[in-house]
Amino acid sequence: MKLKFLLASFAALILGVSMSSAQIVYKKEKKGESNNVSISIGKQDSENEDEQEDDGDADSKYPRAYGGITFTRLDWGFSRLSDDGSFTLSEDNKFMSYKKSSNFGFDIAQFGVRFNDNFKMYLSAGFEWNYWRLKNDVLLLQDQSPIAYDDLNPDAKYSKNVITSTYLRVPLSFELRTRQLSGGKRVKLAFGAMTGVLLKGTQRLKSEEFGKQKYKDNYNLQTFQYGPFVRIGYDNFGLFTKYYMNDLFEKSPDQEGLRNLAFGITLGF
User: Structural domain tally of the chain?
Assistant: First the structure.
C-alpha cells in the first residue's frame, strides 16, 4: 500500500512540475506533402531541428528539458502468458487458458531531457490494461490468498468471461533517432524499464440466464510489476514489445513462473 502511494505521488509530482511552466501549444507543420497538427500542454520536444535553430533562443541549446500533459505512445496489441518460458500453460494454470487476449495503454504526462538531436531520455506516466477472454467457465474468488476459483453455474451458458488488470504505468525511456529523412521524418528506437502499480482487477461475465455481471478485486495480481520494453518505428508509428519479469500473481506459489508478454503497434511514437 505504501509503495502504491509513493509511486502515485511520484507520478503526480512529475505532472505538477510539468504544469508549473505549462502553456497550450498549437502547432501546424508542413512536412513534404503532409500536414501534422498537434495540441499539447507544456514544453514539447521538437521533431524538426531546423525550427529550434531558427528560434534563436535558449531552446536551441543542449541539453534542454521538456515536459507536460500529453496523449501519446498509444499501445495496442496482444498479451501472451508465459508459463516457465512456455506458452503452453501447466495444469495449475489451466484456469487462465484464454481464447483471446489484448494489451492497451497510453501516456498522459512526461518529463524529459534532450541531450542532442539524436538522443533523449524521459520519464512518463500513464495507464495500461490487459484483457484475457477465458476459455473455461470459472469464477475467480474475491479476498482469497493464494488465488482461488470455482466453476461457474453449469446450467448457464456464458458468452463472455473476461479478466482485466488495470495498472498505473511509469516507464523510463531512452530514445535514439536518425537524422531527418525524406519529408522530415525519422527512424526511432526506444528502450527502457516499464514499471506499474496495480489499480484494480476485474472479472466480467455475460450469459442469457444472468445477464451482465461484474466483480472487482485485486485477485492476487502483482501489486508492482516491472520489466524491459523496446519500441522501434518510423515517424509516428512503431512496434512495441514488453516483458514483465515478475509473476502475474503474487502470494500464489502454484502460479510461480506465470508471466506476461505483450506486443503490438504504437501510435504517437
Answer: 1
Non-local (6+) Cβ contacts of 100 within 8 A are 131, 133
pLDDT at 87: 95
Question: In this structure, what C-alpha cell is assigned to residue 263?
Answer: 506486443
Enumerate residues 6+ apart whose C-beta is below 8 A from 94: 136
Q: Whole-angstrom Cα distance, residue 258 to residue 163?
A: 15
Among 100, 119, 219, residue whose Cα is nearest residue 175: 119
> Could you give the C-alpha distances from 198 to 6, 7, 135, 137, 145, in angstroms and in order?
13, 11, 24, 25, 16
Does the pLDDT at position 131 exceed 70?
Answer: yes
Give the pLDDT confidence score for residue 50 in this predicted structure: 52
Domain that residue 124 falls in: 2-267
Grid coordinates standing for 200? Answer: 484494480
* Cα 249 to Cα 146: distance, rounded to the nearest angstrom: 9
Burial class (CB in 10 A: 0-12, 13-18, 19+), 71: middle
Angle at 66 between CA 62 and CA 71, to 5 degrees: 145
pTM: 0.83
The whole-number pLDDT of residue 65 equals 95
